[in-house]
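Batch manifest, entry 17 of 40.
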Amino acid sequence: MSLNEKQEKFAQSYILHRNATEAARAAGYAKESAYNQGYRLLQNEEIKERIEDLEKELTTDVDVVSELEQQYTYAKNNGHTNSAIKALELLSRVRGNKSDNEMSLNPEELEEQIINCLNVLGKNKVTELLHKCNFNQPIELDTELHQQHQEKIQQ
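Output type: structure tokens
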């Protein structure tokens, strides 16, 4: 059995949105039933196979990370807060969020991640943030909290 037109549109929309409700609405399902329809469609084996096939076919000449960083910078500089937040959210998805347990504590990797974040924020924002830091005050290590964090990471 092949997919009908709405199911095909759902599969195509799903690989773009990664949200079953949004994909169902884009495919033409009623707003009121989009959540349920999206869930139901994702349970269909043929639709899941079609989504996998579409993902394999998906190619782009666009550097997604650079494009999202540019979108974030534009939105931030022009006062489009919601768009800036959305760009950061998408950047986070593209780069792959990691839980505390998955994060590397390798100093070189951590430094690289910090530099990437600073580049996204831009020189003015980084300067503003540095002025807020309390580098002149002595830092006291909460050894109990540090030990709890280390145990959590090791689990």
